[in-house]
Amino acid sequence: MSILNRLKIADFSRFRLISVLAYVFLACSIRSFNLFKDMKYFWILCALIGGVLLVIKNNSIENKKYKNKIIFFDVLFLIVSDILYFYINIPFIIKDVLFIAMIVIYLLKYFRLLFNGKLLKKD
């Protein structure tokens, strides 16, 4: 039995908490790493914690159809937010507005699937 199989979360409230913490740690670390460069080791640690929580969250999704889509959009979210904060040269307030809009739209769709019970039920 692998370690990922032992880390599956079947309880709804724990799954919801892990989901929220994963996105908070990842989003805050990506945004703040660019803003507070003198605390880079702290933000790298936060990103590492968020990445581990994201792996646990994605491994706990039972529905294969949604699992693949959510993993794809999680990776896409991370790539787009990295490109937005590190490679696009626009004012920081515009970056924040685009980032907040992107994360709100994604999380609304994700948590709607979660609260409708489609993620923790098998196919």
Structure notes:
The protein is globular. 78% of the residues lie in helices and 0% in strands. The longest helix has 24 residues, at 12-35. The protein is built from 5 helices and no strands. The chain has 123 residues and is mainly α.
Largest sheet properties:
none
Low-confidence stretches: none
Mean pLDDT: 87
Radius of gyration: 15 Å
Would you report the number of β strands?
A: 0
- Global morphology: globular
Distance between the termini: 22 Å
Instruction: Give the count of helical stretches.
Output: 5
Structural class label: mainly alpha
Order of helices and strands: HHHHH
The level of helicity is over 70%
Strand residue percentage? under 5%
Summarize this structure briefly.
With 123 residues, this protein is an all-alpha fold. The protein contains five helices and no strands.
Secondary-structure topology with pairs:
Blueprint: H1 3-6, H2 12-35, H3 40-60, H4 64-86, H5 92-115
Helix pairs in contact: 2-3, 2-4, 4-5
Provide the descriptors you would attach to this structure in a database record:
5 helices; mainly alpha; 123 residues; 78% helix
